[in-house]
Amino acid sequence: MKYKFLLALFLSQNIFGSTQLVILGSGTPNPNPERTGSAYAVIVNETTYLVDFGPGIIRSAASLSPEWGGEIKEMAVAQLEHAFLTHIHSDHSAGLADLLLTPWVMGRENKLKLFGPSGLENMASSLLDAYEEDISYRMNGTQPANETGYQFIFSELKDGIVFKDKNITVEAFKVNHGAFNDAYGFRFTSEDKVIVFSGDTGPSESLEEYAKNADILVHEVYSHAGFLKKTEDWQIYHKGHHTSTYEVGEIASRVKPKLLVLSHILFWGSTPEDILKETQTTYKGEIKIAEDLMVLK
Predict the structure, then answer these.
(1) Which pTM does this prediction carry?
(2) By C-alpha distance, which of 153, 151, 172 is closest to 161?
């Protein structure tokens, strides 16, 4: 009986203990060649769920797939079928055309399932209109192409559970991104992990509620030292829309994640080490500075 129990425990850990977080893009609107637009992947039981799709997402995913020399088969772009958008700012959404079309060209047959604020539906429809000639040529010319893989199914976000399947439950919650009313964070709960994404936000009570005791909290941040060098108009903007190193440390001290991942970093001349040191002023837990193509288990 003892051995059966140990075998069952071993199997459950290997079947369900496989959730991975992939940083596909850790950048901001600033066109840093080393950090593509905001994009993440949560991989559970061989299924990939994307969070944000900033510019560069498809190439980043492909680089991790075996077809292009990587080791994560779930990053094969034809398998990308679920995508959640925090808000429609371009650094989080400009990769949408690539996400709609390239996986289809590579063989995706299922429609892309899109979850996001109301503006996302119009954005996706407009892109398909813009690429109508390209889509028509691929479907009606000599190139093999299916009739469904470029299409999408849209679900508008609301507070609470927005998606659930056998692998994962996804909850959305509004955050404080200035006067941007349709800005959200996400809480992903799998069998073995809770991963929370802040999206773009200033300090947020709703985020703290959903992030309590998370395994991983992915939070945006800006350099406090760099902030002090900004002109007053930009200080007003960033203070109302984003979170400083000191503030994110205070937030993490209250919600106590097992791991704090700092991403979407506005460096403004600071180094990753500077960002880490500033955050450690108010938080003593484990912190990682996000890098593109980083994989966390």
Answers:
(1) 0.93
(2) 172
